[in-house]
């Protein structure tokens, strides 16, 4: 995957905004990302969590706006 080209390598741009410093979801202020991996014998699994802000994401309507 390291040699895989990104879509912008083909002069295709999506959206109007420029990418952030690291071109990562964590470039967005307030966004937090965490992960955990379990690798024990035959068990290989993991989970990633993305929190869009510090507030309560379950009760916040801003989480579900488009």
TrEMBL record:
Gene Ontology molecular function: aminopeptidase activity
InterPro entries per the UniProt record, alphabetical: ArgJ-like_dom_sf, Peptidase_S58_DmpA
Classification via Gene3D superfamilies: L-amino peptidase D-ALA esterase/amidase
Superkingdom: Bacteria
Alphabetical list of Pfam families matching this protein: Peptidase_S58 (PF03576)
Family from the record: Belongs to the peptidase S58 family.
Protein name, per record: P1 family peptidase
Species this chain originates from: Anaerosalibacter bizertensis
């Amino acid at each position: 995957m390291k040699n895989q080209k990104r879509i912008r390598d083909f002069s295709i741009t999506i959206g109007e905004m420029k990418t952030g410093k690291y071109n990562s979801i964590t470039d967005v202020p307030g966004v937090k990302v965490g992960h955990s991996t379990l690798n024990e014998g035959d068990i290989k699994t993991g989970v990633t969590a993305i929190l869009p802000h510090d507030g309560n994401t379950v009760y916040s309507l801003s989480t579900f706006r488009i």
